[in-house]
Specification:
Strand content: under 5%
Largest sheet: none
Number of domains: 1
Shape: globular
Length: about 90
């Protein structure tokens, strides 16, 4: 598990996103997902982190977790639309 603990707040969150993006480019989805899980724990209502987490779950073909994460966003009516939108994004 990758930890970025040297900074706090928004800078740490930005570092996590940057590191996760680099890991995604290297197709190291598991480590990137660990970082996004940390970001979600840090700021649970920060939607970009949750959506990025969903993109990683999608890249890992973990459909049950994608649906579960979408449901946690209380986005029941747009859940399938969001998944279709995520499918169209270049990973």
């Amino acid at each position: 598990m990758v930890l970025l603990c040297s900074q706090s707040g928004a800078k740490n969150l930005d570092a996590m996103f940057g590191k996760a993006r680099c890991l995604m480019q290297q197709r190291t989805y598991g480590l990137a997902l660990d970082l996004m899980n940390q970001a979600v724990v840090m700021v649970s209502d920060y939607l970009p982190a949750v959506i990025e987490k969903m993109r990683l779950q999608l890249a890992m073909n973990d459909w049950e977790q994608v649906v579960d994460t979408a449901q946690r966003l209380n986005c029941v009516t747009c859940e399938l639309g969001l998944i279709v939108d995520l499918c169209s994004l270049k990973l």
